[in-house]
Design a protein that fits this description.
Largest sheet: 5 strands, parallel
Structural class: alpha/beta
Strand content: 15-25%
Helix content: 40-55%
Order of helices and strands: EHEHEHHEHEHHEEEEEHEEHHHEEHH
């Protein structure tokens, strides 16, 4: 009997540890891929745990640099944000991890890919769409959609009991069984006590950020973020004058500093691609600072109508990434359009960090690029080439439509009438 090889997207956590054991019970040969995307993880301990459970091999794929340069940085350049709040930390990691999974499948001649994504969530869509884009003939094993698996396991409590019965160590406890997913951009928390959207998240939940009201420094801290064509090129700490110039170093510095101020916490209900609403708590300190700086420079540098058009494309691209279509013709097209809009987004932004939030307080165009901001033209002290009388005609033309509406339907009524 031929034993089929399975590549398992392994995290070392509750779900994938139990799934590893379950796959072995189904008589598969399991090769685990543990992707290092910057999460706080004891990779050697996770590797040993998988081997102890019975994995044939455990691959620890260090993809941090690729994740930062090929996924996070383009997301900052595009200004991606889902439903105006979520900076897509988990969504961006999935295509990067998928590449590592497919490379392992090709190297070991595996026909199957298994993952621990829930049948109610987005990650099943993300992993599988990426897999089909990269290796269409690959077969997927999704235990949380398998009828036999679902009969055995209703949820996390059953998994905890199963793990205990098979001697599998897990960090989740029955009293606080929320799910955690982390990487170098963020940490997300969901399920368990968080499923009731009216329940306040426990203060002990947060790992990347300090409480902005009780633990954060009260004195503001300033940094200067430099960009070239929308991509961060360096970050300067204006207190120490230390400069960070690689994506990983920039993000590490901003995560540490922003986290100390409690920046980047959000608690939201979002719309999953599969049609459900879910509650998630996120910490994205460094990403929030970079997003704030980039947004400010973009408004400063771009033509108004280019900015409006780019914002429409940004929202579509954010949907594509959230829904799992990083590798798709529409995402490739929109990304190239947005990159074109970033041609003149070069310069620097000074950002001030305070407890719980950050804000841009100064900005400057790059020395070798033009600037649409014309200080002389906009000044209230000199006319600067602007003819105020022209504004009368501008207003009159814009008023034609309003006047015609009033002629046809009568004057607008105020609340007082």
């Amino acid at each position: 009997m031929v034993v089929e090889k399975v590549i398992l997207a392994y995290s070392g956590g509750l779900d994938t540890s139990c799934i590893l054991k379950w796959l072995l019970e189904q008589r598969y040969e399991v090769i685990c891929v543990l992707a290092d995307v910057g999460q706080q993880e004891d990779f050697e301990a996770a590797r040993q745990k998988a081997l102890k459970i019975g994995a044939k091999e455990v691959i620890v794929a260090d993809i941090k640099r690729n994740f930062a340069e090929q996924y996070i940085w383009p997301a900052i350049q595009m200004g991606l944000i889902y439903e105006e709040r979520y900076l897509l930390g988990t969504s961006l990691a999935r295509p990067c991890i998928s590449v590592a999974l497919i490379e392992a499948a090709r190297r070991h001649g595996a026909k199957y890919l298994a993952h621990g994504a829930t049948g109610k969530g987005n990650d099943q869509v993300r992993f599988e769409l990426c897999a089909y884009a990269l290796q269409p003939e690959l077969k997927i094993i999704a235990p949380w959609r398998d009828m036999e698996f679902c009969r055995q396991f209703q949820g996390r409590q059953d998994l905890i009991a199963y793990a205990k019965a098979h001697g599998i160590e897990v960090t989740a406890k029955p009293a606080t069984p929320w799910s955690t997913d982390g990487n170098m951009l963020h940490i997300s928390y969901e399920s368990g006590v968080l499923e009731n959207p009216n329940t306040v998240a426990p203060s002990t939940l947060y790992e990347l950020t300090l409480d902005p009201f009780t633990q954060a420094p009260q004195k503001p801290h300033r940094v200067c973020v430099h960009f070239k064509q929308g991509l961060p090129t360096s970050v300067e700490d204006l207190s120490s004058r230390q400069v960070y110039s690689t994506p990983m170093n920039m993000l590490k510095f901003l995560n540490d500093l922003g986290g100390s101020y409690g920046i980047g916490r959000i608690d939201i209900v979002e719309n999953r691609y599969v049609g459900l609403k879910s509650r998630g708590v996120y910490e994205t300190p460094g990403g929030t600072i970079l997003y704030t700086a980039h947004q400010d420079l973009e408004v400063f540098a771009l033509d108004r109508e280019v900015l409006r058009t780019k914002q429409l494309l940004r929202d579509r691209m954010s949907d594509f990434v959230y829904n799992g279509f990083w590798f798709s013709p529409e995402a490739l097209y929109v990304r190239r359009c947005i990159q074109l809009a970033q041609e003149y987004v070069t310069g620097q932004v000074t950002v001030e960090l305070s407890p719980g939030y950050c804000r841009a307080i100064a900005r400057k165009a790059g020395d070798k690029v033009g600037a649409l901001y014309n200080q002389q033209l906009v000044s209230m002290d000199v006319h600067g080439g602007y003819v105020p009388q022209d504004a009368g005609g501008f207003i009159a033309i814009n008023a034609v439509r309003i006047r015609e509406h009033v002629r046809a339907f009568g004057p607008y009524k105020t609340d007082q009438q």
